[in-house]
Amino acid sequence: MTGRVSGARAGEERRIVEHELTGKRVRDVANGQTGRLVEVEEYTVGSHTVTIAHLTPDGGGIGWTTAITNIGPVTGS
Q1: CATH architecture entry for 14-73
Q2: Which residues contact 73 (CB under 8 A, 6 or more apart)?
Q3: How far apart are CA 23 and CA 39, in angstroms?
Q4: Which of 11, 16, 17, 56 is the least crowded, having the fewest Cβ atoms under 10 Å away?
């Protein structure tokens, strides 16, 4: 049986972290899209940590994730 695994795997730690842009409009420089930063999650496996931004697009639709280093505030709006 195949499928998506939900929840932490053995040796993996996940946690939601606070971020100054949570709830604000941001731009994802990786794809040029703008949206609202919903939450930031850190995944740690062994000594390796990845920080992921969860975004919702302006006007609704399917959200996406990107590395936290790819987002910045939308100015002038």
Answers
A1: Roll (2.30)
A2: 21, 24, 25, 26, 27
A3: 8
A4: 11
